[in-house]
Amino acid sequence: MKNTATFTILLCIILASSGFALDPIPEDTPIQYLITTHVLSFTSNKDEKLEIVSSTATISKSPEASMPNNFTVITKMKLGQHTVEPDTNGRLLWDGQLKPPSNTPFQHLGSPKLLTLEGQKAKISQGDSIEYFEKISDNLYSLKTTPPEASPEISVEVVIRSQNDDLVEADFHTIFSVMTGRKKLPTTDLDIGEPILLKKENSSIVQARLREWFIPVLYSTDEDEAGNKEYLMILLMIDRI
């Protein structure tokens, strides 16, 4: 087991619905929305810094804040000579191609899609338990596994409400918990102790246009001595069915 500031995450998708309706939809049926996401991780360095090319800023307001924040509407990301560009069909273009090149610095962790109704909560949750050792007596250690509440996790909950033909209001609640190290065990220098987690939560109400990509989650570590900086990002697009 290694001490790392990154997160080893297994994809666990909670779907709000299992498929699309084929029969005619009654007029009083709530509007259906498709939420498309892409989860990326990558590392920048002193020579290759992350650049986000944006067209506009989607205005959001945190219920706890007195001033609005800006959600970046992304058109392209650059890291050195490599690019990632989302399109309105829900796909990612990697250096202009549909298939990621072998040398891309971007790691694609998953692309969950959720079908939900207006006013209904939809959730994406990713997490993974971590093994560690706990000392129980001299020279005797017990192997443990972190429970869900003490494991690295990232989750996004969203409730969508229609504003007009191409604008929605999205109520977001995001949680991420990442491993930043391990507790030291007595009598050993091995890095095998209980994980140390950093946890953050945020709530925002976003005015979003349909089929625009924005970033509800962007986490980064501090730069290390070599100038490396690690990122975890979720790209998200909302469309009406």
Overview features:
241 residues; mainly beta; five-stranded antiparallel β-sheet
Largest sheet: 9 strands, antiparallel
Averaged pLDDT, please? Answer: 79
Helix content: under 10%
Count of DSSP H/I helices: 0
Structural class: mainly beta
Q: Terminal Cα separation, in Å?
A: 45 Å
Helix-strand sequence: EEEEEEEEEEEEEEEE
Give the tally of β-strands: 16
Instruction: Give the amount of beta strand, in percent.
Output: over 45%
Work out the radius of gyration: 20 Å
Spatial shape: globular
| Unreliable residue stretches | 1-23, 62-70
* Strand order of the biggest β-sheet: 1-9-12-13-14-3-4-5-6
Quickly describe the structure.
With 241 residues, this protein is mostly beta strands. It has no helices and 16 strands.
Description:
The chain is mainly beta. It is built from no helices and 16 strands. Strands 1-9-12-13-14-3-4-5-6 form a nine-stranded antiparallel sheet, with no helix packed on it. A hairpin with a 5-residue loop joins strand 5 and strand 6. The N terminus is likely disordered.
